[in-house]
UniProtKB/TrEMBL annotation:
Location, primary (coarse class): membrane
MacB-like periplasmic core domain segment(s): 19-211, 430-625
Protein name: ABC transporter permease protein
Keyword Membrane belongs to the record: yes
InterPro entries: ABC3_permease_C, MacB_PCD, Macrolide_Exporter_MacB
Membrane disposition: Multi-pass membrane protein
Family to which this protein belongs: Belongs to the ABC-4 integral membrane protein family.
Amino acid sequence: MGVLWDKVWFDLWHRRARTLLAVLSIAAGVFAVGAIFGLTDMLLSGMNEAHQSVAPSHLNIILRQFIDRDTAEALADIPGVSGVEPLNISTVRYKTAPDGEWQSASVVSRSDFEDQTFDWLQLDRGAWPGDGGIGVERITSDYYGIALGDEIIFELEGTDRAFPVTGRIRHPFVPPPDFGGNAYFFFNQEEMTHFGFPEGQYIQLLVQIAPYSEEYARDRAAAIKDQLAKQDVGVSLVIYQKPDKHWGYDTVLGITLVLKILAVVALLTSVIIVINTTMAIITQQTDQIGVIKALGGTTRDVARVYLVGVLIFGLLALVVALPLGLLMAFFTTKQLLLLFNIDYNVFRFSPRALVWQVLAAILAPLLAALWPVLRGAAISVREALATYGLGGDFGSSRFDRGVESLAERLLPSPYTIALGNMFRRKGRLLLTQLVLTLAGAMFLMVLTLSASVTYTLDNELDRRQYDMRLGFFQFHRSDRIEALLEEYPGVTAAEAWYSVAATILKQGEEMKDSGGLGAELFGIPQGSTMYRPLIIDGRWLEPADDGRVAVISRDTAEFNDLTVGDTVTIDLGDLGEADFAIIGVYQAISPDVFSTDPVYAPAPAVVDVTRRANRANQVVVRADGLDADGLAVLMRELDTHLSSYGMEISPFFSRTRPQDREYAYNTFAIVHQMLFSLAIIMGIVGGIGLMGSLSISVVERTREVGVLRSIGGTSPVIMTMFILEGVLQGLMSWLLAVPLSYLIARPIAAVLGQTIFKVNLDFAYNIPAVLIWLVAVVSIAFLASIIPAHAAGRISVRESLAYG
């Protein structure tokens, strides 16, 4: 076996280029597996661990009236309520310089920052709010460049006042500014009086339930509402939060699912390259196999030689890919968690991802190489010595002669040989095409998924036939709101809506809704054209509807086994309750986990239940052909205009349609970036596969190159011949990748849509991406062909005659 070991090392060392290509191709797939699976494990677990470490509340209850601490803490006497902590939060406007523009912000106050019960805030730097100083949220500080010592100007009743920033604080549950979230600041109870909050009074409650279950939490929320209603305190919203799952978990889970699919495909392409390389080695060394067997070597000896070579390829690839995969997974996880305001500073890795990398580097190549190795090792001595590999009979079939004829008509001599050479080793061509086609199909699929997400969001936003929605802190007269807005220059129409927090009941039992902020009943004016959701069952509200009928979301219908024709009870707390017949089910697409689950009903029916006629707490507005900047300016002007009449707009519930669009796109920008990064890896793997195939082709045709040189072939001609062969392979793979990507993108888009939005994405095949991939694959093929072509151009007549 000593001589055979020498052959293994000889082949590895003296064919260094081939060894390097094989190692890199395996390493690319192993790297993708390690990076993606490691990222998935650490990202999801890191989000949940950070969530669980801050004593998360189960219910976040926003009240309509202030209550004192005793009233809040008395709610803990309700069975199943294990703890209550009151706090204050409000939406205000601020600016960082006297001549700067006003921006929206949330201000938060705790009764004692150093003795918190739930949703722990953590001091990152400086001091807690007090003595005239305020805190700034950590990601707000980083995103907006607000440092300790800066002064922030806040808009107050009748005057403006600057507060110095004396502390930097981490809040565990703030929407990232990258995704459109507000700036966050922190005040003590005394300073909150400047914003109209009486000292010792609270407007929000954090509640924990024991024992926790989603159903029991909703039941206890209803009990708390009832208890507060007896004291004439209304509940505006209830935000439900699971104690063991981060609010962004489901969205990230959908992204990682697609990434895992792409990582497996990347590994598959690497495996195909291993098969291709192994087949080429066996083909090239068929005569050597004959000599080994003639000297007494067995089939097992031959198989062992080549499998050991493949094992060494895998081990070398593991040395390269393992640390890179672990590092990439850690640093990518760290960056992504920072978007969610989560620290991840201590290096760690996923043991499961490490195991997958080892298996991918060792078992996958060995299993892939097993068939060509056993096939080659089983050849007899006579066949081995009489054959120069497989495929040397090119030109004998009708197909081969057709290829040659086509090449003679399309290409000038001597480049006609390039097309024929592509089909000389049909097995290798098939495998190379499989690698390039998979790389192209994945690239096109990724960009199609990105386009489909964008198209789906566009369609949803286009169903809103208004340009902005303004939310108010208090209820106001509907006719007064509409009159004030419609007289303002630039406003073409205004429609006031009434909405109220609701609980959906069926036969007395509370139903599960899909909104992070709970259900919300909307009274839609009869004949309204401002909004029409996507109806998937039943119908939308009609102008003649004035009775107690409702349109509910698909999630609510599916969660509770509700269908069109069923009757549900909608409980509005202290405003009463009433039965509504379901006439339609709509499909909403919202990237915002901090959203309500709307139930739409005719405005007259809502007035009949609530006895709140001609009242509204929000208004939708159409403007006269303004762009995004113009709408933002108009919204600020309308804020000032309405404020002069005592109507304060809540920045938290007010947005223009372009701002909604930007928020939605920013939310999924990370999805696009991660998918595109993996698409680039796929392209690189495909280029490595083509380079390896052409390099082997150069070695096999060494004598042919010598013949070409002997009859006057120059180095540029020979190089062009091989480059043309590579480019032709790239073009062929492009023709195959386009229809394949179309076929696979649709079901993958459905999976991604169901995971993120709980709906199939509106499919949009990315036509520009087809042209982008054409340019990319030709460029990849050209660059991958340069090194093999250069090697071919350097072969002399003497070297070619001495070969073999």
